[in-house]
Every structure is written in C-alpha cells, then in structure tokens.
Amino acid sequence: MSTEDQIAPLSPKTSPATPTITPFTQRKESNSSSEDNRQDSWELVEDLQGLTENIQKPEKLEGLLLKKRKWPMKGWHKRYFLLERGILTYAKTGTDLKKGRLRGRIDVGLSVMAMKKKSMCIDLDTEDSIYHLKVLAKTRDLFEQWVTQLRHHRTFRQNEITMEPPELLLQSDPTANRREKLNTVNFLDLSECESALLELNLLLKNMEVLHRTFSAPAINLLQVGLFACVSLYLWIKYVFMFGLCTGNKFVYMLSCYWPKSTKPIMTQIFSTDQEVLVGSRPLRQQVSSESRGSIPESLSEFFDAKEYLLSGSSSENEASDDDSYVSDVSDSTSVEFCRNENGNGSNCAVMRRDRLPSTRMNESVNLWSILRSNIGKDLSKVAMPVQLNEPLNTLQRLCEEVEYCHLLDTAANTHDPHMRMVYIAAFAVSAYACSFTRAGGKPFNPILGETYECLRQDKGFRFIAEQVSHHPPVSACHCESKNYTFWQDVRWKNKFWGKSMEIVPMGVTHLELPGFGDRYEWSKVTSCIHNILSGQRWIEHYGEMSIKHSTTTGDVSHCKVTFLKSRSGALNANEVEGMVTDSNGRVIHSLFGKWNEALYLGKPPSATCIWRANPMPEDHEQYYGFTQFAIELNELEEGLKALLPLTDTRFRPDQRLLEEGDIAGAEEQKERIEVLQRERRRVLQENNMTHSPRFFKRAEDDSWVSNGTYWDLRKDPGFSKLEIPVLW
C-alpha cells in the first residue's frame, strides 16, 4: 500500500477504508537522555482503522483555552472554545461565540492531533493552519477532560464523515459559514465546469491544427465566442450565488483554460461585464475593508488587464484616466536575462541552459514511517531519502535570493531615501518568489566546508557561500557588485506538526549601499509547507519583516512588511502589505501585492508595479518547479571546472546524479558522503580540534562575514594549486 493510500485525507468525494478506533500512540524523544523529556514526549492520535455505526454522540465541552498567536514568538492569548459534534469553534469571548462572531473553526476529525502531558499542550494540524493550545488553568483534571473529549469527538466526527453522504454532511453542519459552503460547492460542482472547459480547450486546439493546415478564417473569433459564452455564463452564476469576491476568484480559475490568443479580448469582455454588474468603481473597492477577499486570486491578472487595455489603445484620451496603472517594470524577460543590470546597456554573450538534463523521477516514499516519530521535533538532524530532494542545495538557494538584484541597482541610483527603502523592501519580498513552485522537494544539506560561487557579469554581481557550521547547521553567503554588498548567515529550525512542516529561520540579512553610506538589516519570516504526507503540497510564508535602516548621511527610513497568513478558502493567499515610514514614524509609502507575483506602490486604483516575478518555464512542473535562474545555478560549464575549488557544490556527485535522473546512484553517493562527514567529525573530536571555515570569519556581532580571500585566491595562485579538503 502506498503512503497516499495509508493517509489519504477524507473528503466528500472519497470513501475511506474501514476504520477502527486506536488509542494514542506514544513516541519517545529518541535523542533525549533526560527523564523530563521522556515524560513529556509527544503522543499522536492515530486515524480510524475500523467502522462502528453506533458511536454515541459525545457531550459538548466549552471553556477558555490559551491559543498561540499567528506569528512565532508572540506569546499566547485567551480564546473561548466550543467542542460540538467533532467541530471545535472559538471566539474572543463566550458572548461573541453565542452571537456567531467566530475567530476560527477546526474540524477535529480531519486534523492530526498530538499532545504533551507534562506541559499540557495540544496541537491540531489542519491542512490550512497549525493550532497550538494550552489549558488556561494548569490543572491535570481539566487537561485530561479536554483530551478525552477531543478524542471522543474526533472518533465521532470521523465516523460521521465515513457513514454519511456528502449532501447530508452539508445539512448537518449548521455552523458552516458562507465561505466554507462555497468551497464545498466548488469542490462538488467546479469539477464539471473544469471538465467542460478542458474538452472545449482540446476542441479548439484541434481546430487550430485545421486552421494551420487549411488556413480557415476567423478562428480567433470562434475561440472568443465559445469561451466567452461558457465562461460568462458560469461566472455570472457564481457572482450572484456567492458574491463578487468569489466571482473574481472564479474568473482566475476560468482564465487558466483560455487559449493565449483569446486572453486579451476575454479580459476586456470581463472588464466590461464587471462594470455593467457592479458599477464603474475598481474591483478592490466593492467589498468592505474588513475582508481582503476582494483582492483577486491573481493581482497580476488584475493589473495586467489594465496595462493591456492601455497598450492596445490608439487614443491618448482613452488611457488618460487609468495611466496610473502603467507598470515601470518591463515585461520583457530577454532584457532581464541578457542585458547588463548595471545600466550600461551592453549585451551578455553567455549562453546558459534552459532545462535540466532529466525530469523529476517519481518514486514512492513512505514518508509517514519516517516522520511519525518526529512530531514536534527539529527535522534538521533526520536523514531523508534522496527522492525527497531537488538537485540544488541550500547554498544555491541562498544565491536564488539575489535573482532580482536589479532592484538593488535601482535603489543604489535613487536619491530619495524613502524610495530607496521601497526598492529594498521589494528585493526582500522577491527572495520568496522562487519558493512558490518548490514545495514538492527539499534542497540538499551542505557538507561542512562545502562552497558555492556564482559569477554573473550579466547581472553585475559575484556571489560566494560556504557551510561554516554543521551542528547547528549554518550557511553563510556574500554577494557584491559596484553598487551594493549583501551578506547573511542563516540556519533553520524545522518542525513537523502532523500534516505540515514549519520552517523558522534564524539569522540577520545585511545590505550596504556605499554610495549613500546606507546599511539595512532584516530577518526572514516563518515558512510552512502544507500537505506533507498526501495531496498537493503548498507553501506559505507568514510573519512580520522589519527592515532597519542606518546611515552616515541623510534621513533615516524604516519599513515593515507583513506576510499575511492564508485564511480559509485561500482568498488572501500569498498577500503582503507594507509601509515605509520616516524617522518620526510618519507613513511615507504604502505597499501591497503577492510575494509570488508582484509588489505595488500606492493604493488601488492608483498603484505602480515596483517588482514582478519572471515568467516560469513552460514545463517547469516536470523539472522540480525550477525558475530559469534556478536551472542555471548547478550548470558546470567546461571552462569553469579548472577555476572552481573541488569543494564547490557543482562537483557534488549525489546532487549531480539526481539532476541526471539516477536516483539509485544518488542515494548511494549521498550515504557515502554522509559517512565521510561523520568520520571527519570524529577525527576532529578525538584530537580536540574544531573546524575553521576557509572563506568566512566571525564578526564582532557574532555573524559570519567574508574574510575577503576567495576571489584573490581564485585568481592567484588558483584553487588547483591549493590544498583543498576532500568532501566527497
């Protein structure tokens, strides 16, 4: 039986295997030697394994509990909880709960549940969020009461899902709000729409073949007519059934099935139809400010539509009312890839590969057997099979963060300190864009002493990175150009919560703009990968990023960017909001957008695009979800081999074999390399020695900075003439 078969989530369209009720399974902290840790190990509630038709309805339970706040390290707050029929709802107070002013709703039957007895903690991991709960009055009896009732309600709810048909489940849940009803209806109904659109798309592709063969006229008009009729009918139906904000989301879903040739005019049709239905005001102003669901599923779709209409207009008067939508960022990716980012206009002659040697090989891995004993633990020390990796490592991932370095070049040539901060903030947000399509794999962990260099004359920078510590794992990098210097050292704490894995980064990112005497510092936000065990994995980032600014001349500017946590239904997925303030705290600029798409300056409708993510390669899903920039990072050009130190990641055999599609060979080499690393560590310990990084050193603030020797040694005498440790 595959991993998916063992742990497939329950849904209205699936019928699970016959379940039986199993007690808590206790998992010990294997690496701990203290008695306290053994007594306070996580206990996991297993899924049902058998079926019982006569499970008695459990009693309601309500009261105050402590709930951990959304962002890490922000403490706990009181919330009033009600547990009824396997559904746990909560509000700020009991009065709010009775009035229906809910803060959240958790289906206990579809959640992974774990607890720690000594600290009296309860964790519920849903597909959308991780809920950390504590008993308010730390009494053992109250804790046991909540645990017992949660177990009973969980069993009852799972049995209810198993026994009742989907339509009765909807009727039996009176607390389901409008959005949840929409998601269920979408789940049941939209599959039919999707099927119809796919058939229509296939039909039109066949017609396009005939058009190319026989030069049939007016094919585009036929395409527009067919898609407009079907799409408009379905869209208007959903607008009136569920509201405008859902209509925007549904438009984006429909647009995925429009042929490219029809998209411009289809966008214009929907824009006109929108004005007829709801008036001429922008979409964002139609829904109350309390719900940001009015932001379309794709901000780029919304603004690109306006930009297209402007560029297609021959009348200056027609565009004058909406010229504030025009982006100052070029849509031409050829300029990004081939033009010198320092602004001298010279063309880059370097030809780089546009795809990996092999597509991703799909081989089943029983991930649950690896992770089930590590609930709540740091996964950085847990060995994972190579099938879960992507053919890049963490040092190269750090290099991906400077893909949009042209924003730093722009900042370095901007005299207004507050606008400089806008571009710095856009650069900090852009570092997350590449992660959107990468939830399916993890980067290789670097070996202690492993290095990576990236010399990009087309982008005007040179980058080095080194693994400077193994326990704890710390990666340091340094990137420089004539306009800026960028460096950071990062380590991550990974925790698995049953369905999701939380990644909490530690360390500070530094940036200097020597032309203005500016220095900037910020820390990364928390990341979370959902559906680790089954279903489509997806990643979100949440928390507050505070960019601190110090300068030797001029005014000081500060910026705070908030990465919003996705709400139920993903109406605000991937959204960010920010503001730039002066030294007195006065707001100078406002920012909004999505970390995977674009960032805008100002407020709609008069907003300007500051940054937009580069388009993805057409077949990126088959190649680990890599961007074009990521595809180039592990390329080992023939002329580069003699210049690199043998510690460079490009020479690492397990990563290279995975890139070439040889999973068995990659696994064998990965195990061999890990054995060599453990042996080197043993020798150091036996001789009371510690590892000293080759190209980085400790700074006074305890961060890791470049020692300035890499590029000099590369030039003279060259790494081939130096003694280099053997890592693999």
Automatic annotation (TrEMBL):
Q: Which UniProt keywords apply?
A: Cell membrane, Cell projection, Cytoplasm, Endoplasmic reticulum, Lipid transport, Lipid-binding, Membrane, Nucleus, Phosphoprotein, Transport
PROSITE patterns named among the record's database cross-references:
OSBP, PH_DOMAIN
The UniProt regions of compositional bias labelled Basic and acidic residues, in chain numbering, are 26-40
Gene3D superfamilies in the cross-refs: 2.40.160.120, 3.30.70.3490, Pleckstrin-homology domain (PH domain)/Phosphotyrosine-binding domain (PTB)
Q: Per UniProt, what is the membrane topology?
A: Peripheral membrane protein
Q: Where is the composition biased (Polar residues)?
A: 12-25
For this UniProt entry, which residues form the secretion signal? Answer: none
**What does the organism's lineage look like at the top?**
Eukaryota, Metazoa, Chordata, Craniata, Vertebrata
Family designation: Belongs to the OSBP family.
Q: Which organism is it from?
A: Cyprinus carpio (Common carp)
Q: How is this protein named in the record?
A: Oxysterol-binding protein
Q: Which GO terms describe its molecular function?
A: cholesterol binding; sterol transfer activity
